[in-house]
Specification:
two-stranded parallel sheet, 6 helices
Length: 186
């Protein structure tokens, strides 16, 4: 269930997830961890959405492909920064002191690291978009967006592990109870 609460919020922004490794931080009770986790997630989602909205607005008036390419590349760079900030916040939140809490934290931390890498790869591709042909520019931009969206499927698959690891549903219950997590429960 925790996965079902979190993944739609992440997929809505077209993200990707990645490999599993080890994250190190202090153990904290689930009811203290959930608000920190949700605040980090909501701050990230708000930043990504705000940046996307701003770029959409900026691109509406762009007539020069060089400016359009730079605007898109800058957006993806801002997404990398926002994602890296979230990764740090998730590390700082610590591991929930629940069965498999450290593994769950690792899934999220490594997932956001992978998201950052995907945004960085997309940024590098955006910086190479054609500025001599509007058709090529649009095709390349669409391909970048499609690749990011397709990677969102991997996010869901990797975050399936969280639901399985949350033995006794302590984190799910903590997320449902935390006011900071209300945006996930809708």
């Amino acid at each position: 269930m925790l996965r079902r609460l979190v993944v739609p919020a992440l997929l809505a922004t077209g993200l990707v997830a990645g490999s599993f490794g080890t994250a190190h931080a202090a153990n904290v009770p689930a009811d203290e961890w959930a608000p920190k986790f949700c605040t980090a997630l909501q701050d990230w989602q708000t930043a990504i959405q705000g940046q996307s909205d701003q770029v959409t607005s900026e691109l509406a008036g762009v007539t020069d492909l060089d400016t359009g390419r730079q605007t898109i590349a800058d957006l993806l760079g801002q997404m990398v920064d926002a994602t890296d900030t979230t990764t740090g916040a998730l590390k700082d939140a610590g591991s929930p002191s629940t069965p498999n809490g450290a593994k769950i934290q690792t899934v999220f931390v490594n997932g956001f690291k992978a998201i950052s890498k995907e945004f960085a790869k997309a940024q590098a591709k955006a910086e190479k978009m054609s500025t001599t042909s509007p058709t090529a520019f649009a095709k390349q931009g669409k391909k970048i967006g499609t690749e990011l969206s397709a990677s969102g499927d991997e996010l869901g698959k990797n975050f399936d592990a969280v639901d399985k690891l949350d033995k006794g549903k302590k984190l799910e219950n903590a997320v449902k109870a935390a006011p900071e997590c209300a945006f996930l429960n809708t």
